[in-house]
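Late entry, written up from scratch paper. The run itself happened at the end of the previous shift, but nothing got recorded in the book at the time, so transcribing now.
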Amino acid sequence: MSDSSTASWASVEVDRLLRPDLRGRTAYGAPQLDVPVCLNTNESSYPVPDVVVRAALDALEDDLVGLNRYPDREFTDLRKALTAYLERQAGVAVTPEQLWAGNGSNEVLAHLVQAFGGPGRTALGFTPSYSMHPIITETLGTTWVDGLREPETFGLTAQAAAAQARQHDPSIVFLCSPNNPTGTALPFEVIGGVLAAAPNAVVVVDEAYAEFARPGTPSALSLLAGNPRLVVTRTMSKAFAFAGGRLGYLVASAELVDALRLVRLPYHLSTPTQTIARVALEHAELMLSTVAAIKAQRDRIVTELAALGATPVPSDSNFVLFGGLPDEKATWQALLDRGILVRDVGIRHHLRVTAGTVEETTQFLAAMAELAPTHVGPLATPSTVDPLPFETAEDDA
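Output as recorded:
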């Protein structure tokens, strides 16, 4: 049998054995291309400061000697560091028992679905939003319901969200604030409306981009008291420039956090991961020193794209979704031809761009100014959301 025949036979055999609901899907992954300006995955364009690198190396030296031992299963010191950070950043006091962490916020989201979803249960989200929510939900055996936002503004009112929650009686509801890929924060009325309309649901508010919110935007952390079904998830991947460190976390009632121990894998956070994250939190002010610069470039993108005739969505995150593109795929390719990689998130006539350094933003805006006469203009049809294929899932938080 030739190598190609063997591979074909093996593919058929694996497909036959695979869960039926996974057949035909493509693995998660945003384009990873070697380009001069990479603005497609909402990473920070700024490297980890040297002082933090040195501090992490010093701390890891002791860890490496002890790698023959399992890590602290309860990540005690890291929990304390996270609670201290949240009190400074959001002004909300929580206890270490209310904190849970994982390898990126996707792992803590998976823990939530494992604990509160499953066969015969439903999760509800509102499209367009973070597309790992349905992927995690469906691959863990939970039914996904695609709730809807306003088709033109991508807004979500308390009344619309509550009506859909009441209709589907979900076990889990996913809300994003700021929302990905639109960038806008949610009014508290939406969260309260969903909590009231879905009494059998854990309500998850994904705040992966909270540090980038515009002044006066409150955090759902302030709603946790008295709401044992409310969960707020966050990440260090974005504002902390820590995407490679893989540390996401959630805050909820101590009782809900305790339930997650039933589904977590043993020792799921390695000793080096805990140490590096803790060092980053010890240097939080320095690690977050680029946030203001990123927000300035985000606002610059909104202003200058609008002047070119595009329709950017006001953003509370480190990216901008912009419309007014008759053929978004042609614009995506034209930007790539100029060495600039942005994101096609599956919304007709729209693309999403991460706010990078001053230089990166300048190159993107210069390219858009060059393209605007032929790529920005009136649309033939209203904006609609196309179903996102598996391979175009949003960024790992």
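The first strand starts at residue 37 and ends at 38.
(Scratch paper discarded after transcription.)
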